[in-house]
Design brief:
homodimer, alpha/beta, Rossmann fold, 14 helices, 55% helix
Chain lengths: 311, 311
Amino acid sequence: MLHSELLEKLFAGEPRAVARAITKVENGADDAAKIMKAVFPKTGKAVVVGITGSPGAGKSSLVDKLALFYRDRSEKIGIVCVDPSSPFSGGAILGDRIRMQTLGLDKNVFIRSMATRGNLGGLSRATVDAVAILDAAGFDKVIVETVGVGQDEVEIVKTADVSVVVLVPGMGDDIQAIKAGIMEIGDVFVINKADRDGVLRTEKELEALLSLAHRPDFWTPPIVKTVATENKGIEDLSKAIKSYANFQNTGEASLERKRAIARWRLLELLREKLLSNLLSKNGTAEKLDKLARAIAEKKNNPYSAIEEILK
Amino acid sequence: MLHSELLEKLFAGEPRAVARAITKVENGADDAAKIMKAVFPKTGKAVVVGITGSPGAGKSSLVDKLALFYRDRSEKIGIVCVDPSSPFSGGAILGDRIRMQTLGLDKNVFIRSMATRGNLGGLSRATVDAVAILDAAGFDKVIVETVGVGQDEVEIVKTADVSVVVLVPGMGDDIQAIKAGIMEIGDVFVINKADRDGVLRTEKELEALLSLAHRPDFWTPPIVKTVATENKGIEDLSKAIKSYANFQNTGEASLERKRAIARWRLLELLREKLLSNLLSKNGTAEKLDKLARAIAEKKNNPYSAIEEILK
């Protein structure tokens, strides 16, 4: 496919062109930058929803049901799943297959797992690029779901228009453990599996924690109760998402947030590009292997080694 | 404190010198590289134990009890807790205080949370450096505990001599969700809160998953059942850790693993150093702010922007 043809089909929302473009940005293909330069001006129409929470909170079911809800209202939905596990065992591909069965081969629902994190890093950057591609391809909602709950995942979800944090009842004192990092990125909170014992307690604890948080935009995050497997509470969730999206568009904080995201993206891109420029130089890869060997044998140390490389 | 004095006290295991050196590597101080060059040759004596698992699995209690177990056998223990949440709200500091109460102000137990991840990244690198400092300071065991479960956290735990993955009963199908990434890094598995229902089922599921895994070293990871809050199963865990540490030292795979870790450390250091070199150039920070502003207003795009910066 020629570059112009790929872009034309991408902007027309053709799934194959979208998939191809995402693969290119994921792999850091030669024309990835060219694609993203064309894509960027066409972005900004989609509502990007980031969904995170601890493993076992039922995020996937919730995302699937939310996607179906939007689809039934004639919207086009893109789902980007950040799954750092896959480089080890192809977990993402399996995950995709299972989910394709649930959501069917519906042309209004596009699902993609992002997993490649090579030497150069770049998973966060590639994920944010994939979201931009779906946005430019005319998807009305783009849902970014993270499987892990770490630093990278938190940063990715922070780039969404609306960040949803999913909890389950009965986490008890453990809610404290995930408090800080995840709590403060949530624009909307979901207590999923709300048919289980302990919902009220979890809700009270969550309210108490949220009342302590100081949001620069003075937004009070709503708490939505869902039972995703039974499709309960999904409409409430969609309303909560919409209300924050509306709030954010009118707020002063919006441009400030966009600047912070742009700055983060620039640093991510720079980090990756600087390393790839260095590694593409003749002999650097061999030098790296040799130095790694010397360090493993305690004949050198990492700090002296990078001075040698950068010399 | 002079450089030579700091190093002397560090190698003597003085907590204040250790803390100071870690702060220096965390902040990327001017003399951080100098310290690490001196530290590196003195490393390799400690057994480094990485502990990960989903939030709510009771990792902190388990780490505390394990540390007390070692301490009661006259060992010196360092605990490095990777807590990405703290930049948002100082959660790590709070966590440290709570844990200092549990473990007391015992001079044979040193606890430190790593949280700073600035513009330059470097949390993974700083954590691995902190472990090396504790190793060089004469701590017999260094436990690295991650609060998050993401890409960075998985990579950090992979640098340990023994990686322990903590699960809880009753995760049901959700065990699938965390399967790939976390499962494949575990040298030892713990089912904590083993007084709860569903232990047997979780154990069976785990055994089934592990039987599918192909480890290059042909090690079969043991499964240990614990109730950390009641101090049950801690000795079994210590035995499982010891058996893998022994196995690893004799195996062929050991040097290969050390090389892979050295390579990863080099890339992490390079990534950080290249970016810091660029940002320290006159005017780059201002240029970055200006470009981030233009991107937020859609007057520029990230890919064109980094070309401008790198020009």
